[in-house]
Amino acid sequence: MKQRIKHCNLCNVDFSTMYRVQYKNPKEWVFVCKECLLEVKKDNPLYTYGGTWKR
Known about the structure:
Layout: E1 6-7, E2 14-15, E3 17-22, E4 30-32, H1 34-41, E5 48-54
Antiparallel strand pairs: 1-2, 3-4, 3-5
């Protein structure tokens, strides 16, 4: 079975688990990896979690 992969919108690395978030204005949904997720949500009042995408 083919493994599904997405690119992190911030670091452009491929991952099989991604997090759907909004973190800046204008608010739009993007997929980020766990490492980038921890960076964008830290002390960010614009951060919104939208779910986890898994292969």
